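Protein modeling request. Please complete all fields; requests missing the sequence field cannot be processed.
Requester role: graduate student
Desired output: 3D structure, token encoding
Chains: 1
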Amino acid sequence: MRKLIYGINISLDGCCDHTKFGGGDDIQDYFRTVLEGVDLVIYGRKTYELMVPFWPEIARTQSLDETANAFAKVFANLKRVLVSKTIDSVDDEQTTIIRENVRELIYKLKQQPGKAISTGGVELPAQLIEWGLVDEFHILVHPLLVGQGRRLFSEMSLPENLNLKLVASETLSNGCVALRYEYHSDNSA
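Delivered output (189 residues):
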């Protein structure tokens, strides 16, 4: 079965509002490497609108720096699933919209052959985590306190603790710490 990977940037105090901290080459390189191991991304409306059409357009024009352009090329080649009840259509041939039966359809996507699947954002991934569909977590902790903003998983409700296993950690040159955790539903981790 394909892995579903969740990736997110957060501040040290748990803020995941992307407007509160910057990006950079290290961050784009890290997430480009993650995306090189997937062939499908799944986003809710908010995250999708942040990513598309911005990154596919950068891939086409190559109008940013080398690192951003490389990220854009990888992103632009991925199939995309948009989970939304409010968007009827998109001008992107690589995007499929899911409106209903989200849990079942994503579970079916995990059963199909292919590389891993990636997701990002907050609301949709929280739901996917609650349903036990997320297998791996890539948390990029930025070395700053922001004091305000949306907090990671503040609206999530789990029936029990999810015990994760740290499988990798890396300190990037900009001071961010990349943490990679795996979840095994059979608790054999």
